[in-house]
Amino acid sequence: MNEISLIQPDDWHLHLRDDGKMKAVVNDTARQFARAIIMPNLAPPVTRCEQALAYRSRILDAVQPRYSFEPLMTLYLTDNLPPAEIEQAAASPMIHAAKLYPAGATTNSDAGVTHIDRIDAVLETMQRVDLPLLVHGEATAREIDVFDREKAFIDQTLKTLRQRYPDLRIVFEHITTTDAVDYVLSQNDRMAATITPHHLLINRNDLFKGGINPHHYCLPIAKRETHRQALLRAATSQPGKFFAGTDSAPHSRSDKESACGCAGIYSAHAAIELYAEAFDQAGNFEHFETFMSIAGAQFYQMPLNQKKITLQRKSWTVPEQLQFDEHGLIPFRAGQDIEWTLIPASAGSEAA
Ligand code: NCD
Ligand code: ZN
Q1: Which domains does the chain have, with CATH numbers?
Q2: Which of 28, 33, 272, 351 could be joined to 11 by an S-S link, Cβ 3.0–4.6 Å?
Q3: Residue 73 pLDDT greater than 50, yes or no
C-alpha cells in the first residue's frame, strides 16, 4: 500500500503548554488533527472550568486561521475539587473529561490526587453526569520499580475504580504494557485506552542505545520489546478499544538534556505519519482509520470529522530542532527519515 485516505484523525491526549511555548507547537497539531484532548497539567494546573475556558481561548488565538482545530478541554483533579465543578464541566460543550494524575506520577502532578478515596464524591458525580475520567495509570510508591508501575496501578487502583464506579467511562491513557492491553480487553465498553506513536515504535533499549538518550525518556517509560509488540497488536487488530493519543509533550532542549531531565517526547510534528509507520511495520492497515479517526470519537460520544486526509509512502527528513524557547525543541526522530508523508486536510477535499 502506497497511499491511504482516511477521515481526519483526532489526538485524544495532547500537551500544549501555554504562552510562547504553546504558540510554538499548537500549529503542528492543528495542521494534522481536527480536535485534541488538551491535558490540564499546566503550572498551576487547570482545575476549574473557568480556567479551562480561558486556556481554550488562548489556544484558539494561537491557531493559524487556515486550520479549523477544536481544543477539547479537561479538568485536573485534586483532592479538593468541589463536585459542583464537575457538574459545570459536564454541562459545558467545551469541557470533555477530567484527568486523574496520581500525585507525584509525572510532570506537574504534585497537585494530583493522593488517594482515590479522597475524591469519592467527585467520581460519583462524574459517573452520574457521564463525564469521562482519564487516568495516568502509574502507581507512585517509592518501592515499586519504574517498569512495574502500570501493572501496580491496575492492581491497586484501576480494579477498585471499576468496581466502585462500574458506569464511569474511563480512558486508560498512554498504555505501555501487555498487562494494560489484557486488562482493557477484559473490560466492557465503559473502558478504552490510548496508545502513543512512540510506544508503538520504541522499546526501552532506545533509551540507552549508544549512550543515554534523554529524548526517548517519557512517562510511562518505554518497556521491553514484548510489550511493544502487544501494543502494536492491540492497535492494529482490536478496533474500538484502543485509539490514538499522542501524549506529545514538549520540553525545552535544556530541560531534556540536563542532569535531571524532564519526561516527555514531542511527536506532534509528525504524529499521523509515525502511527502510519507503526501500522506499516505490523503490515496491517485494516483498522488504521478506526484507530486514528473513529474509535476515539465514538468513545467520547462525538461526531466523526467531515474532512479527509491522505498519507503517501514518501520519505522526508525531520528537522534537527524546532522553535520553542531560547533553547529549542528536539522532536522525535530528529534528523532522521520518516517513511510516510501527510497531505493535510486543508489541502485535501471534504468527505463525500
Ligand atoms: C507529560 C508532560 O511532560 O506533561 N510527560 C510525559 O512523559 N508523558 C506528562 C504525562 O503525560 O505523563
Ligand atoms: Zn500526557
Answers
A1: 9-305 (3.20.20.140)
A2: 33
A3: yes
249 lines ligand 1 (CB under 6 A): yes
Q: How far apart are CA 152 and CA 316, in angstroms?
A: 40
Q: Are 266 and 248 in contact (CB under 8 A)?
A: yes
Say how far apart CA 271 and CA 284 lie, in whole Å: 18
Residue nearest to atom 4 of ligand 1 (CA): 107
C-beta separation of 185 from 160 below 8 A: no
Residue of 41, 100, 107 best suited for mutating to test ligand 1, as the one with most atoms within 8 Å of CB: 107
Atom of ligand 1 nearest to the CA of 218: 7
Instruction: Classify residue 349 by burial, with Cβ atoms within 10 Å: 0-12, 13-18, 19+.
Output: exposed
- pLDDT at residue number 106: 87
Predicted pLDDT at 349: 47
237-287 pLDDT per residue, tens? 998 999 999 999 999 999 999 999 999 999 999 999 999 999 999 999 999
Other CB atoms within 10 Å distance of the CB of residue 146: 10
pTM to 2 decimals? Answer: 0.97
